[in-house]
Amino acid sequence: MELIQFKSIGQLFRHKRRVYLDSNATTAVSRYVRQRMNHTLKHAYGNPSSLYEVAQKAARLVEEARQKVAQSIRAQPAEITFTSCATEANNQVLKSLSLYCAPNRRTIVASPIEHPSVMETLRWLQTQGIQVKYCPVDHQGRIAINELEKLIDTNTFLVCCMLANNELGTIQPIAAISEIAHRHGAWLMSDCAQALGKIPIDVVQLGVDYATFSAHKLHGPKGIGALYVKNGCPITPLVHGGHQEDGLRAGTESVHNIVGFGAACDQVNQLLHATERIGRLRAELVKKLQLIHPEMQVNTPQEGSLPNTLNLTFPGIDNTGMVAALDFSGIAVSAGSACSMPENKPSQVLTAIGLSEQEARESIRISLGNKTNRRDILYASRIFAQQTRKQTLTVNLVTPKQLTLEDLKGEMNYILDVRPAALRKKYRGLIHSHAISFFELNLHLKDLPRNKPILLVCQHGNLSYAATYYLQNKGFTNVSSLWRGISGWLEMYGEAE
Ligand code: PLP
Question: What dotted CATH number matches 279-388?
């Protein structure tokens, strides 16, 4: 018996190559950033609020990092507040302006393709009496400027539009939006988390009043973000407590993370330098994929988009299956925004640009990184060729409709729940199912029946897809995977079971 547990899907199939094409989800921490962070952890462990040497050293490092972050977006250091992430920074702007800073105005006008950290906050603010109007976007995700002008009125205190979209890569005409917002006396906030390091940013030229950033999108550490507030614009704290960050963000500073963010910003010019090459690789990948799969639809605009981002629809191919299938061959791509994954809803961004729910479920996001090279692109296109030809997607899928309540009794089927234990505890499963975590499947092959069809299920259908593929490779001939998983099944049958 193999005694090693799997740590990832890819580990099931020892492949020679790993190609990371999900840089919009996160990036690897660069060696330079790591060195700066390690040095900080070792030599500047003091609390920046204390007055002795090792603490003051930490305080100096925080201010140096603030300067670097400010410089990378052409802001003043005093306009930068460190937060725990871009999500927190987005929350801070939206909540503080809505609840405290604009008591006589009640309306926010926003793009409908914002990141969940904005969309969900807007939804919550609606429950607090804030009116939110969404401005339509075109089929490439670009905001309809003429419509925006019509939506803003004297009740509007904020326009909210990201600089670059995380799923499509579409870059918004922020300077033009700023002109309109300001003409109507509204502030402009822009989530710039995806843009920093991929396109040059000058907050003054863009005309934004508030902007948010995240270090882990540009080879910095996770757990650190920054909020830019233009000098003179109002803001209140989200986290109350100590006086840190000029009273705008309480809590002892995460000095090593802040230093890591600063170091990542040191490398912004290098990253920008690489974008031309990355753009060429993206173009080459599109050409190759179009030859392989002529019906493929490119959702990302060729011009006016982040050079690394590519959103594609493959008609007839479910994206959860495709993500898992590509992972078998060492290729990491995503089926949407990492932050919206647990919901298993079709991407709101893609439906907002006019894709049907089905098309949205047939779309994937590829995001190249500064280390992506031509060999990666050639390998990726070869694997895409194999996986996107329908006949090579060899995993049998059972739709929620095909799995009736009768089937759940388990007499005809052996239903195997492969979710990790933590997920099984948190979310209900299907009755009469057996449970073996995907990552321990190799330890339990002998416990599985060979005389019954095995139906593998997980939360959304991606882990079970991978597990089905694995069992097929281990000689199980009658295995299938529940498409869209337990959540898809519950959506159809509700609380019936
Ligand atoms: N905004 C955008 C556009 C993003 O892509 C992300 C990350 O996926 C975030 C905000 C959230 O960033 P963080 O992970 O720092 O909260």
Answer: 3.90.1150.10
